[in-house]
């Protein structure tokens, strides 16, 4: 697994904070202070683990529409060079023979890097060859701005997304 610069040291720091909070939670006498320290330890551990294992997944659902079915692929986390190929594969799998509309739901996408946009272009290109309409929905302002800057606007429709 390739690490983004700075991800491992930050995760290590949060793990250290969690360990200190757990250790400190053993000694204080008031029960409320132990509870506060253990909550802090749990929060620090969660931050450390999400730093180590970023969200890189997608889910898929479909509904029938006239002329085929509408497939929604919901992407999560970041789209960059590390996970672009996986996202492209997930989106292309949604392009079945009876797919009429492919909706790419980006409501949970935090960031799209320039190195992650080829995954989207590959999917849109495959969809156009199959005569499938592509809709990008719920893209945040920064995500939509990136898609606009690389020229994807010419090939997709937007739904529920702010204008760049």
From TrEMBL:
Bilayer-crossing regions: 33-53
SUPFAM superfamilies, A to Z: SpoIIaa-like
PROSITE patterns: STAS (PS50801)
Pfam families registered for this protein in UniProt: STAS
CDD domains, per the entry: STAS_anti-anti-sigma_factors
Protein origin, superkingdom: Bacteria
Keyword set includes Membrane: yes
Domain (STAS) ranges: 73-164
Keywords on record: Membrane, Transmembrane, Transmembrane helix
InterPro entries to which the protein is assigned, alphabetical: STAS_dom, STAS_dom_sf
Protein name: STAS domain-containing protein
Organism encoding this protein: Streptomyces camponoticapitis
